[in-house]
Amino acid sequence: MMFPLWFLELIVVGGLTLCGVGAAALIVFWILDFKEKRIW
Amino acid sequence: MTIAEMGTEGISTVLIYSESVDAGRILSQEAGYGMLLLFGLAWIGLGIWWGRRATSYDGFAVAGRNVGLALGTATAVATWVTSNTTMLAPQFALQLGIWGALAYSTASFGLFAFAPLSGRIRRLMPHGYTAVEFVRRRYGRLGSVPFLIISLFYAMTWLISMAMAGGKLLNALSGIPYEVGMTVVLAVCVLYTLFGGMYAVIGTDFVQSIIILIGLVVVAIAVLLHVDIADVHHQLQDDRPMLLSVLFPAALMALFNNMLFGFGEIFHSNVWWSRAFAMREGVGPKAYLLGGLLWLPVPIVAGFLGLAAPALGIGVSQPDTVGPLVAATLLGTGGALLVFVVVFCSLASSIDSLLAATSDLVVNDIAEPLAKRITGSRASDAIKRRWSLFAIIGLGVVTWCAAYPNVGTLATVLFFAGPMVGSCIWPIIGGLYFRRSSPIAACASMVVGTSLGLVAYFAIGWFVASLIGAATSGVVFLIGMYLYPDDFDFRLLSDSPGTPQAGRGDDGGPIDPNGRGVMVGDIPKGGETR
């Protein structure tokens, strides 16, 4: 029994999307913290 | 002619060249030295900049205990993305297939699981510095001695493997001699940690996590432009079907082993505890949860580079550099530079964290107790700050000496610590949540779990060592708790180590013969903080 193609596509494309969203989220969090002076 | 000029049709030629002549050299030495200089100066500069805040020992060791969500999340991601993630995950995928990439990603479960623990740690020990300090005050010397040995062994193993990875990476990509690359990477991290302590570590982690995530996305998309996922699947199906097998025994064992290794690493390591102490009240659980979510896809995306290697006909002479080799081979100089930056950030973000957290162990759990025994008084913040500097330099020197001979593969070095940290999972969970968890149970579970895990490591293989270490230590811990139950008062953890307390010596030191803090019954009892 083998992993189907759709599963490989799901984890690769899903992983890529999550990485991209993650980088954006970190920047958004930083901006929010900065505005509220809660970085440190 | 550069690889970019050759295009994808030239890959085979490049590989013949790289395997037979100069294993995987993609960048010129000049470019490699240039990148090293650029990023080395950048990290040191940022370290000095952020380090200006570290005016007290609390600032230097735990960044003032007020780190917000953005930096808290970023430091969890960056620290957990080691060069092993970007170099070993593709190796896992290359050797163990899809399960290999998935197995590596299960290490994120440790971050998820540590999220609630981090909140409890912060509440129970608002003035704490290290994980060993918790174990010492919770279990006494019986628990803290094996735990300190495991913590130091693991920290040094991780540090050495990171330093070795740095040397190997620079050598694989640009031909910079291993000894030179390893030395420069280590020296840069020592310098900026020395200047800025935890402020510098967490600050640079933020920048590094953004670079790692964006760099990985760019490299993976560029690889996908060269090779279709369907082609990768088709090629694997024809040539290496085991890599697609749902029932790949070694890979399945690696999955559970890696997950438990991750749990053990995070639960016991002061790298994560020091961050829990550093984050503002209430931030830790959210930051570790988000950090786990952001880290989860990294080994999968990196692992895809390893899976793509057979489809591209890429022969790999050194499996632990397959990721950088695939990206750099496909993307030419630009890809090589990007991979270089991503892996350099991965290295730096882990090495700096280890230097800072391990120096805290040396200062708070070795030097300070020894000094107190000799002089009879506690060390001042200024003295502890000075000790931290010596500790960071000392750790750098020891790491350099161990990494210089370049012995063993990354996986071997890394997984040797697996059963040891796996055996710490239950003593930590039990110690944080259950009053009945006792010193004898904790000590026996760590010793038995480590011993049997190491036997399994040598008798069977690395892929079962953590599993067996964690499983046996869990059983021993439960039996120990049943036979020798404790009745610990969690309030004893909340006071500052220097605060005199009823029932204690005036230096706040332990009075229990085992070296533990005050036992229940020594002070008026008023329930526990849970």
TrEMBL record, chain A:
Sequence intervals crossing the membrane: 6-32
UniProt KW keywords: Membrane, Transmembrane, Transmembrane helix
Protein name (record): Uncharacterized protein
Organism of provenance: Stieleria neptunia
Native organism taxonomy: Bacteria, Pseudomonadati, Planctomycetota, Planctomycetia, Pirellulales
From TrEMBL, chain B:
Transmembrane segments: 31-50, 62-81, 93-118, 139-160, 180-202, 209-227, 247-267, 288-313, 325-347, 387-407, 413-434, 441-460, 466-484
Principal place of residence: membrane
Domain of life: Bacteria
This protein's record includes keyword Transmembrane: yes
Keyword set, alphabetical order: Membrane, Transmembrane, Transmembrane helix, Transport
Region (Disordered) location: 499-530
Family: Belongs to the sodium:solute symporter (SSF) (TC 2.A.21) family.
Name of the protein in its database record: Sodium/proline symporter
Protein's organism: Stieleria magnilauensis
